[in-house]
Amino acid sequence: MDLDALYQEIILDHYRNPHHAGLRDPFESEVHHVNPTCGDEVTLRVHLNEDGTVGDVSYDAEGCSISQASASVMTDLVIGRPLSEALDTHAAFLELMQGKGQVEPDEDVLEDGIAFAGVAKFPARVKCALLSWMAFKDAAVQAQGEPA
Amino acid sequence: MDLDALYQEIILDHYRNPHHAGLRDPFESEVHHVNPTCGDEVTLRVHLNEDGTVGDVSYDAEGCSISQASASVMTDLVIGRPLSEALDTHAAFLELMQGKGQVEPDEDVLEDGIAFAGVAKFPARVKCALLSWMAFKDAAVQAQGEPA
Amino acid sequence: MSAGALLPDLEVIRKDFPILERTLEGGFPLVYLDSANTSQKPQVVIDAMVDHLERHNANIARAMHQLGAESTEAFEGARDKVATFLNAPSRDEVIFTKNASEALNLVARTFPLGPGDRVVITEMEHHSNIVPWQLACERSGASLDWFGIAEDGTLDLSRIDELLSPGTKVVALTWVSNMLGTINPVAEIARRAHEIGAVVVLDASQAAPHLPVDVQAVDADFVAFTGHKVTGPTGIGVLWGRTELLNALPPFLGGGEMIATVSMEKSTWAPIPHKFEAGTPPIVEAVGLGAAIDYISHVGLDAIHAHEVAITAHLLDGLASVSGVRVLGPLDAAHRGGAVSFELAGVHPHDVAQLLDSRGIAVRAGHHCAKPAHKRFGVQSSTRASSYLYTTPAEIDALIDGLEYTKNYFKVG
Amino acid sequence: MSAGALLPDLEVIRKDFPILERTLEGGFPLVYLDSANTSQKPQVVIDAMVDHLERHNANIARAMHQLGAESTEAFEGARDKVATFLNAPSRDEVIFTKNASEALNLVARTFPLGPGDRVVITEMEHHSNIVPWQLACERSGASLDWFGIAEDGTLDLSRIDELLSPGTKVVALTWVSNMLGTINPVAEIARRAHEIGAVVVLDASQAAPHLPVDVQAVDADFVAFTGHKVTGPTGIGVLWGRTELLNALPPFLGGGEMIATVSMEKSTWAPIPHKFEAGTPPIVEAVGLGAAIDYISHVGLDAIHAHEVAITAHLLDGLASVSGVRVLGPLDAAHRGGAVSFELAGVHPHDVAQLLDSRGIAVRAGHHCAKPAHKRFGVQSSTRASSYLYTTPAEIDALIDGLEYTKNYFKVG
Ligand SMILES: Cc1ncc(COP(=O)(O)O)c(C=O)c1O
Ligand SMILES: Cc1ncc(COP(=O)(O)O)c(C=O)c1O
């Protein structure tokens, strides 16, 4: 089993020093997602700017290295970007994770996220990697419906 | 398969010409029993005499040859007998039926009922043979509780 | 409907079913004509289960080790197969239950009903599609009404305007009758039911083994079937439902993996399908069901149905040749399923079944869990012969011979 | 309680379980320490199921042909075995369900409760013995209260007088905790509960695999356990209940063979156990469960428990030698079950399980369907190792080595 493919240095770095962690104001939507199987949880807030860019994504997450690192990488990738681009990145990450290791990640789109390519070969960990991404999408869609 | 052991001439005779069939007055109790699996049904009445003998057992039964013949034989064996004796006969018949073909029937007690010895070897038919006997016991117990 | 044609490789198919080599008391080979009760299992189904138990056994989802991943993949793979089999829009709409009865109870227990609402069923339902609705109506104060059965065994649609009128919230009916063999016009009834805003629950227990079951083509809302009748094992059934309906229903059984989170004060629910799968699911049974679906899909449901039509035609011809036989249900093999119930004048069904059994022929005698339909035809019980993809014309001939033998034995006709 | 002693013929026993010969990725032999999640199956259980499917498969009760008689005998024979296993006063008190969760839901759904009534559970219950009671209380207006957990992982009985007071109608608790390993004083609680007229529902899911379960000795009213944890297959569970209580409960699922008679207007119910077994039951699963019970009874529950104690003592010693490990639950192997949950400082349970898995060691990580008990100890999840009659001390050593390897990998401690 290729553990090092799963636990890439980039992932362990993000795990030890997660970016954008903690819950912050302002925000238009807050969601709480759980992985019912293992109990991993994330509370996540999204703040959208008036110009349609992602102003902030803040979160409080409890979970394994993969889920924590994934939240950290995700915030790096979406904060400051136009929401539509952020959602494209979400789609690319989802495709990578569901690809059973057959999808070649695009570094231009996913940046540090390509480190998760190895996770796609561990079906039981895919949910961990997706937890915060799913929460972001959910919150972003809700935030769009709210007056900024 | 020894069909002739199941369908003894005595059984087929009782089936074609059932004794004591039909519902009659007087009676102290009436019960309705079904075999849920196949739907065989019997409605059965018991009349007890003041001296504790079984005055009458009348019945309306729908079912296969075994269940019909069994009802006929049962009434022959219990009508006119002291109830306690009738219940002993019930116990003897029950023992025979549940004996998986290993119990030797006592002709003095069971008379025509010994023809059912072969039925005990056909587990699926045991319920048929017992239907009216169980109804009789149920009704007799109820009748005892009633003022005659 | 379809024209009959025997499966061309029938002898090869029979070799797939180990039990068909059994001989019974007296040296008679098994003639199994009780497939509507439960089907026999091909070797591939048994082997898939054995392989799972010997090499991949673990609990699913919750287990994140290699065996757990293998077991989860096998289990969830079976869900994919069922979704394809039913042409379900989404795999998450496939819920594994313990049998068809539980699937129907799940809907009847959770579907919101109240006083003034009406549930419509039919007189030809299996008890598993009657009793849950009786209980639901008793609990909720809703009323129960039903389509009757016409003399020829088809559904009596004369009251359809009255039955399918506002107030009716649920229409629950069998696709194919397990007693009469009748194939009901389910797509047409679904269309009419939807006009008045009712949901349609189809009991496909007898359809799934024999017909292509396409939940979208018939526009059903819920569909139930059972594993053991489609060459799969006991212990597993399926409820399919539309996503939006399943999402709206409250949970059925609580526990295990059906939760999102649990505290002592309050719990929340997992998304479908898990919301309805409390506790350890039937894992090895799903593996077996998946293999069964592969097997019958490989033979082809159209080919299986054509075989059923051919065998049923031969059976109906044979029965017509025996004096004293009265068939209950439609007489045209091209427009009915393969379960054929009949009476033999002067011999009780138990005794018919017993005599046939003494010659190795397995049929069912009784009410077949369809008491109201029997009552409709003024009988308490009947004898039922039912075929499947492994049934041969020679087995039907053995049955017909057996009926003549029975008449002789009991000196009737 | 019992002193530990390894099973003398452990190597022979291991040969009974084909899966123990599996090697996993990287060539590691399987070290299966997830038996509290589901147990592995001995060859005799698999063979019994195969023999049934290949030679005796038929529906039960309703089928009165030879195969039907064989199948019925096999199924009802399994009921006899379960009755003996539980020391049940009557075989009719043994109800087959799909798993322990359904068994617990059956009681929670049908037991009469109303406003003012109280249900008492414990904080260490599996979700399957929490959620059904939450739903029952929500439906009925009854209130839910619970025993807490003491710091050492035993049940906190300090509120017993308040909890077991008039108004309490049901006391539902686990015999052995699947997370903490705690063995609860169930006989004593039953005695106290009966003084105030409450019924006692025991979740024996983790007890039945390891301890002699005697429903009369502990004076229980209902007992549930699940087939797949006692070396039997998935798809089957057991509810045992006292005859008079079962007779008094209304039916749970409707359909199939649970009826006495059905008309369109009204139905009546069969006697127990059939009243609670709607639809085709788990037949081949009962056959497998019967073989499983024969198997573990042959080894002997006392001997199995002694083995568990010995293995658990070795495991607790090993864990104590790893710095950064904190065990959740009682620390004396002689007074606890074999499921041992623990934390490893600085490494999340998922990552622990992943590292162990890479060496072929299967443990469980997560909340083990016991979120409230995890919350009680201030953790969201834990790693759990659990043994069974085939577990060897060498496997425990592999786990301990694996934990040191894990710490190295993640550079902690
Ligand atoms: C204590 C306890 N109760 C109930 C259950 C539920 O058993 P099942 O999932 O087979 O319904 C389990 C196991 O998962 C358990 O450990
Ligand atoms: C039409 C129909 N519905 C429902 C059922 C119930 O299936 P199960 O007994 O597997 O729940 C059956 C078979 O018994 C059936 O034929």
TrEMBL record, chains A, B:
Residues 7-128 form the NIF system FeS cluster assembly NifU N-terminal domain. This is SUF system NifU family Fe-S cluster assembly protein. GO terms for biological process: iron-sulfur cluster assembly. InterPro entries: NIF_FeS_clus_asmbl_NifU_N. SUPFAM superfamilies: SufE/NifU. GO terms for molecular function: iron ion binding; iron-sulfur cluster binding. CDD domains: IscU_like. Transmembrane segments: none annotated. Belongs to the NifU family. It comes from the Bacteria. Pfam families: NifU_N. PANTHER family: IRON-SULFUR CLUSTER ASSEMBLY ENZYME NIFU HOMOLOG (PTHR10093).
Automatic annotation (TrEMBL), chains C, D:
It holds the Pfam family Aminotran_5. Residues 31-399 form the Aminotransferase class V domain. InterPro entries: Aminotrans_V_dom, Cys_dSase_SufS, PyrdxlP-dep_Trfase, PyrdxlP-dep_Trfase_major, PyrdxlP-dep_Trfase_small. It is an enzyme of class 2 (transferase). Its cofactor is pyridoxal 5'-phosphate. GO terms for molecular function: cysteine desulfurase activity; pyridoxal phosphate binding. Keywords: Pyridoxal phosphate, Transferase. It catalyses: (sulfur carrier)-H + L-cysteine = (sulfur carrier)-SH + L-alanine. Its EC number is 2.8.1.7. SUPFAM superfamilies: PLP-dependent transferases (SSF53383). It comes from the Bacteria. GO terms for biological process: cysteine metabolic process. Belongs to the class-V pyridoxal-phosphate-dependent aminotransferase family. Csd subfamily. This is cysteine desulfurase. It comes from Nocardioides marmorisolisilvae.
